[in-house]
Amino acid sequence: MSDKKVIVVFGATGAQGGSVARALLQHPGFEVRAATRDPKKPAAVELGRLGAQLVKADVGCPAEVEAALRGSYGAFLVTNFWEHFDKSTEVKQGKMVADLAKKLGLQHVVYSGLENVHRLTGGKLTVLHFDGKGEVEEYFRSLGVPTTSVRLPFYFENFTSFFKPAKATDSGAYVIGVPMGDVPMDGMSVADLGPVVVSVLMNREEFVGKDIGLSAERLTVQQYCEVMTRCLGKTFVDAKSDELKGPRPLVRGVLELANMFRFYLMKPDRDLALTRRLYPQVLSFEQWLLKNKAAFQAL
Fold this sequence. Notes:
Layout: E1 5-10, H1 15-25, E2 30-36, H2 42-50, E3 53-56, H3 62-69, E4 74-77, H4 81-84, H5 87-104, E5 108-112, H6 117-120, H7 128-143, E6 147-151, E7 154-155, E8 166-167, E9 174-176, E10 185-188, H8 193-202, H9 204-207, E11 211-213, E12 217-219, H10 221-232, E13 236-238, H11 251-264, H12 272-278, H13 285-291, H14 293-297
Parallel strand pairs: 1-2, 1-4, 2-3, 4-5, 5-6, 6-11, 7-10, 9-13
Antiparallel strand pairs: 8-9, 10-12
């Protein structure tokens, strides 16, 4: 055990952190310290059963974060804008972890980041849940903390939550309300993040200081619909309209999501080839859909 590198995984019971923790647990070179606000919750208990060390750590509490990081080789950090809907809170959390990583001399931090859209567009477009992460990326760099930022694209899983199909009352087809028009959109299963992070940690010298845009597939909404139609035996169509009726995101988040898609229309850098090199088994949308067919049909 003494030869293993201890990696602190924040958000270990969430989608991103959970994927990373499970992938690290399957690798003989790493020991996982799973940071969670509630070590007694079922997802945390399961990680403990798999071999993770559970530690109570809220990214809003410096003392808990410092205790979790002490003695570790590195960390995976993800922050959750949607929990509080406040960019300043997310930036504060990220910078606090960066300060402690610098203080404690961590050898490698893999940060789930995104572009600072406000800066990139000269203030013409603001995407709060991107911009905050972009500021934190910049802060890690300014401190000289050995950091790799992994930038996820649209989750395939979003088709079962925020953007799940809505049945049209007239045709009986299922419509997908993702406002991308004919511009291809990068996508990936969040469950595939873990093996990517393991590869990044295993190749520290290559990836420290890099921003890695991830993508498993790049399809237009119509092409996503064609895959759904072929795999699920029902007709799926691109809504191509903001007038779609049916399940929608919370009103508070509509503008934020609309601005996210405006940024997607600018074709941010997502590297299909590098993603596949980091994890050759990364699932295409069709592979993911077939794997999750029962859950998708239950919608």
